[in-house]
Write a structure and sequence with these properties.
By secondary structure, the protein is an alpha/beta fold. The protein has a single domain (3-124), classed as Rossmann fold (3-Layer(aba) Sandwich), CATH 3.40.50. It has helices at residues 15-25, 47-57, 73-79, 92-108, 128-136, 147-162, and strands at residues 3-8, 30-36, 64-69, 84-89, 113-118. The longest helix has 17 residues, at 92-108. The protein is globular. The model has no long low-confidence stretch (mean pLDDT 96). It binds 4'-phosphopantetheine.
Length: 163
């Protein structure tokens, strides 16, 4: 039984994340999407909101579960009995950070391996940060995130403008 963790902030989940989820779910027996609960990163969406969005967009996958986590990723992987971490690589700019993170995690926990999937070309430019920026200025985001997420993002931006 091969269980993998796909960790991230998912603030919010994009079509790029969904692509990695879909492809990984075909390779492993079970995929645990680990949603980082870390307010120091000042996420736009609370961890509960991010989990809700992910559950909605991943509802058709039979072997994907969504679980929030805090603390070290390798501790979470151990707790979930997962020996594999999956990360997406969009471009060379991602590589330095991802290499450092995977090597650090391997030092911390040699039994947990990291594997990378290169992002599908149509999503290689896409990031949660740029989607939030477009939404903040009222731009069209439907090509970047699933409909349910776009709705929540528009509402969140409206609420922020009211504050
Ligand atoms: O979507 P992101 O923000 O690129 O995901 C980053 C994430 C959640 C994978 C990373 O911040 C993480 O693993 N955080 C948990 C803390 C940890 O284990 N740090 C040591 C790894 S170098």
């Amino acid at each position: 039984m091969l269980r993998a963790i796909y960790p991230g902030s998912f603030d919010p989940v994009t079509y790029g994340h969904l692509d990695i989820m879909k492809r990984t779910s075909k390779i492993v027996d079970e995929l645990v999407v680990g949603v980082l609960n870390n307010n120091a990163k000042m996420p736009l969406f609370s961890v509960e909101e991010r989990v809700k969005m992910l559950k909605e967009v991943a509802k058709d996958f039979t072997n994907v579960v969504i679980v929030p986590f805090d603390g070290l990723l390798v501790d979470f992987a151990k707790k979930m009995e997962a020996g594999l971490i999956i990360r997406g690589l969009r471009a060379i700019t991602d590589f330095e950070y991802e290499l450092q993170m995977s090597q650090t995690n391997h030092k911390l926990e040699p039994d947990v391996e990291t594997m990378f999937l290169t992002t599908s070309i149509e999503y290689s430019y896409l990031s949660s940060t740029t989607v939030k920026e477009i939404a903040a200025f009222g731009g069209e985001i439907s090509q970047f995130v699933p409909e349910a997420v776009a709705g929540m993002l528009v509402e969140k931006m409206k609420a922020k403008r009211r504050v």
